[in-house]
Batch of 2 targets.
Target 1
Amino acid sequence: MNDTDKPQPAPKPAPAPEPAESPDVHEETSRSLLKEIASGDALAGVLAVFLAVFVGSVMIAATNEGVREAASYITARPSDFFSALWEAISGAYSAMFRGAVFNYNLTEPAQQWRPLTETLKFSGPLIAGGLGVGLAFRASLFNIGGRGQMLMAGGAAGWVGFTFDLPTIIHLPLAVLVGMAVGALWGGIAGLLKARTGAHEVIVTIMLNYVAYYLLFYALSRQFLLQAPGSANPKSLPMKDTAVLPKVLGDQFNLHLGFVLALIAVGVVWWVLNRSTLGYRIRAVGENPSAARASGINVGRTYTVVMLIAGGLLGLAGVNQVLGTVTSGVSLDLDASIGFDAITVALLGRSRPLGILAAGLLFGALKAGGFTMQTSENISVDLVLVVQSLIVLFLAAPPLVRAIFRLPAQEAK
Amino acid sequence: MRLVLRGITKRFGSVVANDSMSLTVEPGEIHCLLGENGAGKSTLMNVLYGLYKADEGEIELDGVVQNFTGPGDAMAAGIGMVHQHFMLIPVFTVAENVMLGNESTGFAGTLDLEGARDRVTEISERFGFHVNPDALVEDLPVGVQQRVEIIKALSRDAGLLVFDEPTAVLTPQETDELMDIMRQLREAGKAIVFITHKLREVRAVADRITVIRLGKVVGEADPKASNAELASMMVGRPVELTVHKDAPTLGADALVVKDLRVVDPAGHRQVDGLSFTVRAGEVLAVAGVQGNGQTELTEAILGLQDDISGSITLDGIELVGESTRTILDSGVGFIPEDRQADGLVPGFTIAENLMLNRSFRSPFVKNGALRIGALRDFAQKKLKEYDVRARDIDSLAGTLSGGNQQKVVVARELSRDLRLLVAAQPTRGVDVGSIEFIHKQIVATRDRGIPVLVVSTELDEVVALADRIMVLYRGKIVGMVPADTPRATLGLMMTGERPKDLKDVVA
């Protein structure tokens, strides 16, 4: 029958001569592509970061005044050019280091380490959101609805946060749980629609982003809903102290409990994926839905459950923002583009919880350090965003990275 | 045309698919390449056809060393390939397909369709193909489509024809006709390479046989050699080809199917009023050409088809309307016909695959958590028991050979408490050694008093396993016949014809 010589690079079709009755061929190819991008090896992630940083360096150098000046007389005094080059690049990255990890220009130890706590603060929602996107990736679902899920969750958690008068021990957990629940529902809609009607989750989650944004906009411009009384701005009242995530290292640092919640989420998602039957089924559905179905696994229900959990995790990211990082009230930019950055984090973390933790920390550091780069070296924050985007670009083009580093193709194992 | 392959070596990474293979094919001879799946036959032919570049060795045609960079070169040099999966465009006519890629054009690029039609008629008449040049390919039976492929090769004056597993998709009658065609081509002086792993066909037409194992030429075999001799050369050890089984000990009616109808998602009625019974301790084999309702029948039993009517009862309990999970849990073992699609998760380890349909309850699950220790112990045991050739239980299923993948599926299904086994194409794409093993397991299952439904398009397999044979054609039963029914009769029935003197057997 089918002479499947193992090393043949091109997979042969099934031996059955069934006349092309495969309407979802495109679905299949897009799925396998997604799988390759979302679950490749760690090396590819490291190389992608490396490449992106390199290209970023070139851009830093190219936009630097001193470098450009020295370049004009490079033939006369090349040493000037190279020292300017070195100054620009090392200056940029040391500023990034000072802003993200440890500021050696200061003397007081607490102040020196403050940047690290900022990094951790920024990475909290990125980790939680990255888990939400990454978990969906494991079921071969592309959750682009992070923004909508965060907005809905943030709005709901914020409403609980500024409305009720309750003791902290009840108020804070209530606000967190309500936020996560609303995020879960918002994600679950996409899962349910996919399970019941086959609606593609990419389209549904993108559209739900718009629905969430304008719903929140509507609520924030109505006094009887979320808008602060007597205000004309689309912004709610600030959170009551009883609903604010407490600072974990004392008041001199902004690092709040949200980061700890994100760490706990990493542990829980790791356990669910690797040790629970639910996670087993999620992975089975993600890897081969038709074998999962033939083995009695309800594929549609799994999709719904995955999107519920994913939405809940992005809800946690939204809660992190509203009850922790920006407690001055719910606003339309509460997601701070974390809903989309979470996709990058999940991709860079290869959809593995520990990978997402590492990627979230890296992106938190880029965020924290980017500000210092701008203030002390006058390098636009946009460059940091370019580096972030380049990481995704290099991740999404594995053959490109393989070609650059002359890695063997993956087929030849 | 005389073909000489000299010391062809082809490596993929560290894997040597062809290890210094040499082969000579004379004009006017049918040369069989016999070997198991993965032995390197197709790789060798792809090198010959210019699809792969050989790392070492040379190809010589009529004394001239060739250097092909693609199939175009190979075709121009007179090599014609008849692929297992036809490379035809269904909505084109025969003539259009034949001229495709070699179009002769007239003034301002107009196609010379008339010339192509004449060419088809001429070749068709010369070899007695009976092919209408104006018929649409999609309307033709599979066997005739294959002839179109042959005409296409001949229309380019191919002196060497390669048939790559040509009979996999044919009925027994069509296979016989193909053998006749090959003999005619031989008389016309063509050199023919015939790739197969079916011993019966080799013995029927081969002038010379070259046996290939693990990327090496093991030697030449005599066409008069027995099946057992050929098989042991292929596998490298003595192989039992016939399954030894005692007369069945029949129990009560176990699987009872009544007036089953299945409509597929495209709206075609694939199973059309089937009624049959399988008794405990019996193997009922379902024979038929691929696509006559077998797939839908097995999927209906497993609850994988949505639009079904009629009744399927197992030990008196209705299965229609139940979920797949309930049906599996009630003791139905299922070896799906396409293990890659439905039987395995390629990215899972062997161990993980062994619990695929037991992810809800014991023994591998406790309070929603996986019992990894229990699963690993189980997997270690099954790896040994079922002789799965893999590095360890953590090897990914996708990296195993077809035979070993199938053993994983079989191990999983037979390790549960079964009340029915449904085995669809249990040895498709599986090497001879594994076929022997899997067949023994199926017979052992029957001997434990479990009813077994085997679906196969291979007559050899049907005859080897069956206690009774049910022949399907277009979703209907052509006849229910005893296991010792002559092949010719079965082959005829597979085309939908019911012999006049046929009497159905009842278990």
Target 2
Amino acid sequence: MSTATEAVPHGHRRAADPYRVGHGHGGGAHGFATGHGEGGPASKRVIVGYGFWIFLLTDVVMFSCFFAAHGVLQNETAGGPSGPELFNLTHVAIETGCLLLSSFVCGLSFVATEARSMLWTQIFLLVTGLLGAAFLALEAQEFAGMVAAGAGPQRSAFLSSFFAVVGLHGCHVTAGLLWLGTMMAQLWVKGFRPNVLHRLLCFNLFWHALDIIWVALFTIVYLVGAGR
Amino acid sequence: MNDQYRENDEYDPNSGDVAPGVVDVADRSIREGVEGYLIGFGLAVLLTVGSFLVAGTHAIWEPGIPVALVVLAIAQIGIHLVFFLHITTAPDNTNNALALAFGVLIVVLVVGGSIWIMSNLNSNLMPMMPVTPAQS
């Protein structure tokens, strides 16, 4: 059944035809899973990654509800301080830099994982975590300053929605940092086992998704909000 | 990529799909992997710096600034999806891209619909505003 595909080295075949131009809908007849109901279920890595991707998209949908609330309420300051008075864009730029760099280093850790380099994977994961912690510290400092200046979440509907959407992202980053620490420990103790690798893939997806949400957040909440 | 990688269930050359976040090229070297992330990072930095410059500039017609910011953000999200999450339009990514498309549809409906309806209500209620404080 699979003699035709076995004859050619897999890596070579895939590299020569990355878009599978030569494989039409009847690919299942050659004995490999297409994920379209032919040839049996996909590998566990694909299933785990796809399931986590679905979860991330539902997470994004949840964030969109918070964004919608903020979009509706951003002018309801109830006589309190508004966006341009509160936001320090330099501060936001440093936060953005920390998170973007963190996401990049997380990607490097994934390359190191693919190369099965324990040392570099751990180093890059550590740097990812430190940058994430720096981001969180800056955000906590910003929140504390606003609350101390009487611009806490109870001051106005605008500030309630602001603390809700930015705080929700901060909670995700906190959860991500806990996950990161757990992954570093698991990797250290268990090595590059398949289940650990699945979790590392999911963590990578999670961390990159958090950065995507931050892109929407700093644009809509801070940059557009500061111009009002 | 060593042989250990192919022996366990991590890499399945016979599968027609790839997981999100994974590049479906069996022989991708470390250098190519790092290059991909470097390009993505460089573009993301450029777009981020562009966003902050646009927000602070007076060179652009003022009501156009939010539009420019949203366009830059969407571009940067695209960069992140392609270079960091490795979502492509290749056939082995169909499931990932379709799930993303559905997510985007829901996000657009929720955000766009909420803002549209609430601004409509706001503008309909506008004549009431001056009356309320005077009565109390």
